Amino acid sequence: MKIVQGRFTIGSLAVVLAAGIAAAQAPAVPASTPAVADVATNAAASKTNTAPIVKGAPVTSSVLSVPIAGAPVPVPAELGSSGQWEVGTRYLNDSLQDKTRGKRFVGSFVGSITELKNKQDDVPDKVFAQGRIMDWPVWAGLSYDRVRAMTWDGATDGNVDLRGVIPYVQGVWANSTRFTPYAEVGFAWYQSKFDADPGWSQGGTHVMNLDNTTGVEIGAGTGIRIYKNLAADIYLRYMKVNDVTGVYTLNGSKEDDIVFTMSYVAYGLGVTYVF
Fold it and tell me: What's the pTM?
């Protein structure tokens, strides 16, 4: 039997199988009489300078190492396949969808303000937590959100600041790779506030009182497993925010109505952990 670099060739495996079949079909012979198959096998082994194969000897590990056609190949499980809870946080870069409105004092956001400029958060504080619904590839979660905009008319009067929570439902495409794509829909509740510039407010003489608002979210992304249940997160969101309305007052008296358009698109990176 021929051995090449410590592994059996196909020809040598065929000899082993043929010898085993012949031994199983041959009639029993006295123990003192060598079986024909043993003699032939030993003769063949001596010609190739290899150790003789004795009928009935245990199969060596080298035979067990030969791949068997059709045998299942183990693959890594999808991220969080055995987990029921996931927590994470993200850094998002947002872009307002409606940054300009009307003309000064005519159809503007308010008064002379005709432009809103993005004001980024610059910290990875968009935390979220979610749980699997039964054993389905569906999760229900809650995430924190904040979006800001600087008012502008050649100078700034202050910033529009929305903070809130987004309950959402997420569908996950479970698979055996490192990548776990998902899509989600949610509904947001925002607390609205105007952070007035001290130079504009003049000690509270000028005030913008804003009403709270809501929004509808559509998001998508993919988790990329880093190590065990730890993953990176690539994320994209569209948030349709209902107009932020309010009243501008001067010395306590109403001067104008306010309408701020705060819908945005955001993208960013995050990190998650499933347990």
Answer: 0.71
